[in-house]
Amino acid sequence: MQITLKLYATLSDRLPDGAVKNAAEIIVEDDVTLNKVIDRYNVPRELAHLVLVNGHFVCDTDRDQTGALVEGDVLAIWPPVAGG
Fold first, then answer.
1. Where does residue 58 fall: left (phi above 0), alpha (psi -120 to 50 degrees), or beta otherwise?
2. What is the pLDDT of residue 72?
3. Percent helix, strand, coil in the chain (nearest 5)?
4. Does some domain include residue 46?
5. What is the CATH number of the domain that holds 33?
6. What pLDDT was estimated at residue 81?
7. Range of 52's domain?
8. Relative to the CA of 25, which of 17, 38, 47, 53 has its CA 20 to 30 Å away?
9. pTM over 0.70, yes/no
């Protein structure tokens, strides 16, 4: 299935070639977990601080569940941000 992967800040360089404005259309398996997508794009799990599916936060304990993504979803990931 096809989803949109968005990686922000220091993670954006991990997007595949052809990404535009921090986003890339990617193909994933129907039963993929969020952590499998995170791992596939070499995002260290400790840097996947804020993970949203269609704007809804997914805590780290739920990121290994299958069925979290469906066709057309948007998976957005931010690293921890320092400063203020």
1. beta
2. 98
3. 25, 25, 50
4. yes
5. 3.10.20.30
6. 80
7. 2-78
8. 47
9. yes
Q: Are 42 and 15 in contact (CB under 8 A)?
A: no
**HSE-CB for 62 with a 13 A CA cutoff:** 11
Give pLDDT, residue 82: 55
In a domain, 16, yes or no: yes
83 domain-assigned: no
Q: How many domains does the chain have?
A: 1
What pLDDT is recorded for position 45? 96
Structure tokens at 19: 């990404």
Is 26 a member of any domain? Answer: yes
Residue with tokens 């791992």: 39
Taking only the tens place, the pLDDT of each residue in 10-64 is: 999 999 999 999 999 999 999 999 999 999 999 999 999 999 999 999 999 999 9
